[in-house]
Amino acid sequence: MNKKFTIRDLNIRYDHQVALSDCNMDVFANEILGVIGPSNSGKTSFLRTLNRMIDLNNQAVVEGEVLMDGKDVFIDLSVEDLRKRVGMVFASPICLPMSIYENIVYGPRRHGRRKKDELDSLVEESLKASFLWDEVKNRLHTSALRLSGGQQQRLCIARSLANDPEVILFDEPCSGLDPISTAKVEEALVELKQKYTIIFVTNNVKQAARISDRVAFFLMSQLIELDQTQTIFTSPNDKRTEDYVSGRFG
Predict the structure, then answer these.
(1) Which of 27, 63, 162, 219 could form a disulfide with 11 if both were Cys (CB 3.0 to 4.6 A apart)?
(2) What is the C-alpha separation between 213 and 229, in angstroms, rounded?
């Protein structure tokens, strides 16, 4: 399998507080990697390092190596290029205060795409890929803020797709959604891995079990175990992993 990310000896701290220690792992292209673990275990810091959102925290210190397609994300790639290639969807949907259509074309326009027919096609393709097109195709020019929470989250996915990324990071994308909306987001993720690499943090271990190809378990600022999903949930190597996925703690 082709490696999309290679992470070696990754250490993250905020001032003197360790967020992640000695993390080593590979992320493969076109997989869904689920990242699980209790709060304050390093999951979000790990995720934000991959597209350098970590740079926005002035107290953050990152050491080690993070390679994307063999290139160091801190040395060989500009932040702008990296974030175009590595999109991110947050726990709470962050829609721009404009129409559904304008939300999606905002990024592509900033990168120089101006032709209306191209933008129209891009909007339709992105909304279809995020399983939202049929619900909004007749109201593209109404405010995105009028959508339900689940629809807004899928719009955020569509907006990320419109920038033609290679990787999409998800930080607890279903934490505030009802079961029906969650199911639609999960359905979209499973389809998206045909074209994209998906890395998602979730506090819902059942969700990780449902849609992940592999699962990484973080605990107390360390990567404890990374393996195929079935192995993590049926015969993990570390008792701490077994205790967490079985609900004994966390």
Answers:
(1) 63
(2) 6
pTM: 0.92
CA separation for the pair 104, 163 (Å, rounded)? 9
Place of tokens 């009802």: 178
Pairing of strands 86-89, 32-36: unpaired
pLDDT in tens, 24-74: 999 999 999 999 999 999 999 999 999 999 999 999 999 999 999 999 999
- Compute the distance between CA of residue 160 and CA of residue 150 in angstroms, rounded to an integer: 16
Count of C-beta atoms within a 10 Å radius of residue 191:
14
Between CA 208 and CA 213 the distance in angstroms is 9
Residue type, 208: A
- The residue length of the chain stands at 250
Q: 158 vs 73, 128, 129, 174, CA distance in Å?
A: 24, 8, 7, 15
232 CB contacts (<8 Å, ≥6 apart)?
A: 214, 215, 217, 225, 241, 245
Q: Please give the Cα distance from 222 to 41 (Å, whole number).
A: 7
* Structure tokens belonging to residue 226: 């990374």
For tokens 């506090």, name the residue. 203
Strands (E), 112-189: 167-171
Q: Which long-range contacts (CB under 8 A, 24 or more apart) does 235-240 make?
A: none
Instruction: Give the integer Cα–Cα distance in Å for 32 and 168.
Output: 10
- Report yes or no: 122 and 130 within 8 Å, Cβ to Cβ: no
